Amino acid sequence: MPESYGQFCPVAQAAEVLTERWTLLVLRELLMGSTRFNELQRGVPRMSSSLLSKRLREMERSGLLTREPLQGERGHAYRLTPAGEALGPLVVSLGNWSREWLTREVSEEEADPALLMWDMRRSIRIDRLPKDQLVVFFRYRDAEEGKRAWWLVAEPTEAELCFTDPGFGIDLQIDAEARAMAEVWLGRLELGAAMRSKRIRVSGPEDLVRSVPDWLGYSTFAFEDPAAELASRQAK
Q1: Backbone angles phi, psi at 97, to 5 degrees
Q2: How far apart are CA 31 and CA 83, in angstroms?
């Protein structure tokens, strides 16, 4: 367990549980619906497996989650308790505070395609797909080997992310700088502006290309008006 602050203050006691490195990000993933170890790991790709296991045990001891054996297969399902669920508004408030006061350009180091694609998959507006099955090939031209190619298979029930070609015909190809796509997803850059500057290129049938802004989806913490936000930042 984290070292105690030695104070009776509720803020200090909460900090003992929540401020260990990675804990809030693991909590974020659980709040977003991840329940299995490999799902959680994809949301925190730079966290080692051993450290993730340690944090999950600590969160279980603190009463934030439960661990249940999976029926018929190896592994466990991790589910938030009412105490863990009650932290949802706090996590959202932290994200909103960061958006308001800590906003900065996405760095090359932060623009990790693995995390970006995992997050984007969860925000796809499957109710706005232009066809029953939409297969999109993403290529990040500035990413390291092993993180350049991704396939997104979106259907009315779910969107699935693939590391290898799923064997379906590709409907759209999106060739992008990872930083540009991250900025679009965060609502800091308009997709149209990124396409005009060639930082993002979308190829495919014209009607499907036009549909991208409808189904792409954005971060929970995205700016609603990227152009206005950019103008505001430039004026400061």
Answers
A1: -65, -45
A2: 12
Q: Are 87 and 27 in contact (CB under 8 A)?
A: yes
Q: What is the pLDDT of residues 57-100, one digit of tens each?
A: 999 999 999 999 988 888 899 999 999 999 999 999 999 999 88
Full-model pTM: 0.85
Give CA–CA dist 95/92, Å, rounded: 5
Structure tokens at 187: 């609502």
- Kindly tell me if the per-residue pLDDT of 6 is higher than 90: no
- Within 8 A by CB and 6+ apart from 105, the residues are 179, 183
Which residue ranges form the domains of the chain, and what is each CATH number? Answer: 10-101 (1.10.10.10), 113-227 (3.30.1050.10)
Sheet containing 200-203: order of strands: 159-162, 149-154, 134-140, 172-176, 200-203
Question: What letters, b where the CB count within 10 A reaches 16 and e where it falls short, cover 66-79?
Answer: eeeeeeeeeeeebe
Angstrom distance (rounded) from CA 215 to CA 61: 40
**SS3 label, residue 137:** strand
Pairing of strands 65-69, 134-140: unpaired
